[in-house]
Amino acid sequence: MKNLLIGAISGNYSPQDLKNWVETSNWNDCERVLLLYNPSNNGIEEYLKDNNINVVYPNFDFWGNEKSQFNFDTGICDFATSYDLIHNIRFFHIWNYLQNNIYNKVLITDVRDVYFNSNPFSHLDSNFLVATSEEIIYENEEWNKNHIHYNLGIAGLEKLLDKPVYNVGVFGGGHELVKEMCIDIYLMSVGKYKVADQTSYNYLIQTKYKYKTIFTNLKDELAVHLHVINAGLIEFDMNNINEYKIIHQYDRIPGYKI
Q1: Whole-prediction pTM
Q2: Contacts by 180-184, CB closer than 8 A, 24 or more apart
Q3: What's the maximum distance between 2 C-alpha atoms anywhere in the chain?
Q4: Quick one: average pLDDT of 189-199?
């Protein structure tokens, strides 16, 4: 049974935006799938098909109504639009895809700001979820702390404030666990006034999935999230970056070359 690498993109992306993810993830043991929202006939579909990537076109909302356009701007998130915000609804549509397609291990990543140094599936466990740390504590980073407060209130602050932040843009594990996590992220994230995929994910791995999750950090050399490093919040020797299988948020560093 094959593994699955899956992510979500929007028609406002270009083939150039996807190049690094696509060209560094061509592994024999893995099927690659991208959900394409808001297709725009800009060459993405042809590029992906030429590179043996399956394209899925989400065309329905939470209630099963036909829908062709989805919001991609997290700055336009409120009680109503949160249901169709791509950052949230991608997990609903991944859950739906995993209902109908069976794999051994599943890895979900962001796409435009991710590339791979090597195949990461050896770091995944088919019996667990694997979370990747940003190495910061919620209490020490304003964006994450603010989103807990808005999305989860004092219950979220009590549960997460002293915990590390785990990035929802890179996680994986066994098929059934990833599928279950995806629908839980979505159901926790809708009806919120700020984008809530990351806060929902972190709450879930510290509660319902706590004993089903392997919590990794930089010492595990699975993934490195570069935003907090570029912001000076975490010390990291960039000379060692090739030792990490997944590089995320490299676009936050001006002039970064792969």
Answers
A1: 0.97
A2: 181/129, 181/209, 182/91, 182/92, 182/94, 182/95, 182/98, 182/108, 183/91, 183/92, 183/95, 184/208
A3: 50
A4: 95
